[in-house]
Amino acid sequence: MTDPTPVRMVVGASGARLRLSSTGSAADTVQVVDGMSSWWSAIHGYRHPRLDQAIRDQAEKFSHVMFGGLTHQPAISLGRALVELTPAGLDKVFLADSGSVAVEVAMKMVLQYQRGLGRPERTRFLTVLGGYHGDTFDCMSVTDPDGGMHSMWSNLLPTQVFGPQPPALAKPAASGATDATDAPLAEVDAWAAAFRDVAAAHAHELAGIIVEPLLQGAGGMHPYPERCLQVFREVADEHGMLLVFDEIATGFGRTGHLFVSELVTPDVLCLGKALTGGYMTLAAVLTTEEVGRGISASESGVLMHGPTFMGNPLACAVALESLRLLTRADWKSNISRIGGRLRDGLEPLRDLPGVKDVRTIGAVGIVQLERPVDVPSATDAAIAAGAWLRPFRDLVYTMPPYVCTDHEVDTIVAAIHAAVRASLKATA
Ligand SMILES: *Cc1c(COP(=O)(O)O)cnc(C)c1O
After folding, report:
1. Does 100 show up as a binding residue in the annotation?
2. Taking Cα atoms as reference points, which of 346, 330, 335, 407 lies closest to residue 178?
3. Where exactly is the site Participates in the substrate recognition with KAPA and in a stacking interaction with the adenine ring of SAM (predicted)?
4. 345 Cβ below 6 A of ligand 1
5. What are phi and psi of 239, to 5 degrees?
6. Does ligand 1 lie within 6 Å of residue 218's CB atom?
7. Would the CB of 15 count as within 6 Å of ligand 1?
8. Confidence band, pLDDT 50/70/90 cuts, at residue 158
9. Could you tell me the pTM of the whole model?
10. Distance (Å, whole) CA 382 – CA 390
11. Which atom of ligand 1 sits closest to the CA of residue 100?
12. Does the C-beta of 103 come closer than 6 Å to ligand 1?
């Protein structure tokens, strides 16, 4: 690049904190709380002794073997644990190597299922505006075509069908509630009618619906009402489409539900990001027996996908340990503790001129400005206030590691205040 943005060197990380250095030497380091969980993934923090140990133990056995014709205990145990933890019916697991690959695999599953059913003409996907599903080409095709980060590719991508973005949640309920149940009824009904119309107009060519349930992430940090999930389910069933929930960001407790899919069960579920507690890249796609049968009835008989590093044993071993940590702790009250502090701490920013909106869902806090964030000055101010933040577009936001103490959450809140003020000043 001819004009790269500044980067900071990480020289160490433990618990919820990163040690940063601008020169790379240990002499000038600062400690900051990681407000981003390394993009949703490091939910248990860094250098967790149990996760470190899980990697070491597996490395002493073997670090990788091909996953064609061979299998191994970490993959079997992880598959069982995922089937166990996710809603009933999602009994088949495919291990992929990143979130984007998981979305590709999910879309391929849907297409192969439709072929297996003798409907090869069903080749398109229905989604909603404002979404984000990853950076490879099929993922880009279902990401928001204008607002998203892939607009320059629009003439090269498969053309999918976009319905309207689900409406925003009403202003947050009283302190303590983190569930996204507060829905403006009339708006949801109007949205549902428009979404149903788009589906009906294209039903003959649609293979599936793919959405991020309850919270659109990198497309704009947009939480939306639970009732929209039921609409997705009904529309999919009505028109013989499969429903794919991309829970790569929302999975593993982040929204206050272990999986949003507990509210409405999809046919295909994508998981990634926090799956390994942020230690290694790994993703999983879960589906039903019925979809598995449909895929097997297609001309290839099997799902045609086999990445070299599929089911990597180190990644599976650390994912399994991360799931144990998550489910043996009281993650739910931890999420509402962090979410409550974020909401109380960020809500006052709503009245600041230049701030467009403040929203929270689960352990996610979002401040939207009226103009694009000035990232360098916002980042500097956040670090000076003690936290690492990575704003994008008009958003300063956080999804802290679940191990954050109250004090660490308050540090993140203070850093968001500082980042917002610094950006407003720089863009005034
Ligand atoms: C991050 C993300 C992806 C892509 O995952 P990668 O591991 O970055 O490829 C896909 N969908 C959603 C909802 C995501 O948040």
Report:
1. yes
2. 335
3. 3
4. no
5. -110, 15
6. yes
7. no
8. confident
9. 0.96
10. 9
11. 9
12. yes
> Is pLDDT of 178 > 90?
no
Which of 251, 255, 261, 256 has its CA nearest to residue 282? 251
pLDDT tens digits for range 409-427: 999 999 999 999 999 999 9
| Annotated binding-site residue? 99 | yes
Q: Which of 40-54, 138-152, 218-232 has the lowest mean pLDDT?
A: 138-152
* CATH topology for the 9-34+331-426 domain: Aspartate Aminotransferase, domain 1 (3.90.1150)
Closest CA to 358 of 342, 373, 382: 342
Higher pLDDT, 179 or 322: 322
pLDDT band at 173 (very low <50, low <70, confident <90, very high): low
**CB contact set of 123 (below 8 Å; sequence gap of 6+):** 111, 114, 205, 207
Ligand 1 atom with the smallest distance to the CA of 103 is: 10
Whether the per-residue pLDDT at 96 is higher than 90: the answer is yes
| pLDDT greater than 50 at residue 141 | yes
CA of 240 to the centre of ligand 1 (A): 26
Distance from C-alpha of 397 to C-alpha of 408, rounded to nearest angstrom: 15
Say which CATH class 52-328 falls into.
Answer: alpha beta
Q: Is the CB of 109 under 6 A from ligand 1?
A: no
Band the pLDDT of 179: cuts 50, 70, 90: very low
Ligand 1: does its nearest atom lie under 6 Å from the Cβ of 72? no
Average confidence score pLDDT of the chain: 94
CA of 135 from ligand 1 middle (Å) equals: 8
Q: How far is CA 147 from CA 152, 232, 388, 391, in A?
A: 11, 22, 25, 16
Query: What would the pLDDT profile of 294-304 be if each residue is shown by its tens digit?
Result: 999 999 999 98
**Ligand 1 within 6 A of 212 CB?**
yes
360: tokens are: 């929270």
Q: What are the domain boundaries of the chain?
A: 9-34+331-426, 52-328
CA–CA separation, 138 and 283 (whole Å): 17
Nearest to 166 by CA among 210, 227, 107, 124: 227
| φ/ψ (deg, to 5) at 427 | -105, 5
Q: How far is the CA of 414 from the centre of ligand 1 (A)?
A: 28
